Amino acid sequence: MHPSHYAVEKILSSGPVIPVIVIEDVAYAVPLARALIAGGVRVLEVTLRTPAAIDSIRAIVDAVPEALVGAGTLINDADIRRAQAAGASFGVSPGATPSLLAAATELSFPMLPGVMTPSDVIAAIHAGYTALKLFPAAQAGGIGMLKALNGPFPQVRFCPTGGISPTSATDFLALPNVACVGGSWLTPADLIEARDWAGITRLAQQASQLR
Ligand code: 3PG
Questions:
Q1: Which residue among 50, 108, 179, 191 is least packed, with the fewest CB closer than 10 Å?
Q2: Which tens digits make up the pLDDT trace of 106-156?
Q3: Is 12 exposed, middle or buried (0-12, 13-18, 19+ CB in 10 A)?
Q4: Whole-structure pTM value
Q5: Is 73 helix (H, G, I), strand (E, B) or coil?
Q6: With a 6 A CB cut-off, is 61 part of the ligand 1 pocket?
Q7: Residue 183, ligand 1, Cβ within 6 A
Q8: Is any atom of ligand 1 closer than 6 Å to the C-beta of 20?
Q9: Which of 45, 112, 161 to mutate to test the pocket of ligand 1 (most atoms within 8 A of CB)?
Q10: Domain 3-208, classified CATH 3.30.450.40, yes or no
Q11: Could you give the CA distance from residue 107 to residue 93 in angstroms, rounded to a whole number?
């Protein structure tokens, strides 16, 4: 197994929920990360969806060493390079094109690639990946889809993400092929803007006890 795949296995085993985070202002990054850590959530996915994302990853890596910081929404090799340069220890992508997977392998960057169809899963296995994000999970069929995928692909462990709530997360986490789930509910924009770090810690505590 490629060494970077061990890193992904570790990330998937570090807790039941990976928060999918959108940071609009780098000033929020470190207190937000500390709030999540205080609630027992150590693996953080900071999405590259805002101009503040890369600086936020760098700030968290520098100031919060206990966090395992990844970059989300990676769609090309330039994104992987930017994430890596900022100190991200893994990447998450909404899809899994051959060029994206090849770039991650070439750069030895641990990746959790997004899949939605059996053909996506086959292509990812072919590229050496057996830890995959199912995205968008609820819209792709949710629990039923994951049960169906477990037949032909028992070697794959999934992190379903997209449309999962604290209520539905429990059912996803009970499936044998689900390692963890991803979700944005731990870091709602209104709590971040209000700097309600205690509120985010409470959401993180609830999430870390889901299994
Ligand atoms: C996303 O890409 O934003 C993630 O899939 C999170 O989805 P959610 O907001 O439905 O949790």
A1: 108
A2: 999 999 999 999 999 999 999 999 999 999 999 999 999 999 999 999 999
A3: buried
A4: 0.96
A5: coil
A6: no
A7: yes
A8: yes
A9: 161
A10: no
A11: 15
- Two structure tokens written together for 123: 């292509």
Encoding tokens for residue 78? Answer: 């330039």
d(CA 22, CA 53): 8
The enclosing H or E element of 25 equals none
- E strands, the chain, are 17-21, 43-47, 68-72, 90-92, 111-112, 114-115, 131-134, 157-158, 181-183
**Is the distance from the beta carbon of residue 91 to the nearest atom of ligand 1 less than 6 Å?**
no
- Residues 126, 150 contacting (CB under 8 angstroms): no
CA of 164 from ligand 1 middle (Å) equals 8
β-bridge partners, 45: 20, 70
In tens, the pLDDT along 56-85 reads 999 999 999 999 999 999 999 999 999 999
* Residue 79 to residue 97: CA distance in whole angstroms: 14
**Which residues, listed in sequence order, are joined to residue 46 by a DSSP beta bridge?**
21, 71
Dist CA 109 CA 162 (whole Å) = 23
Q: Is the dihedral of CA 162, 165, 166, 169 positive or negative?
A: negative
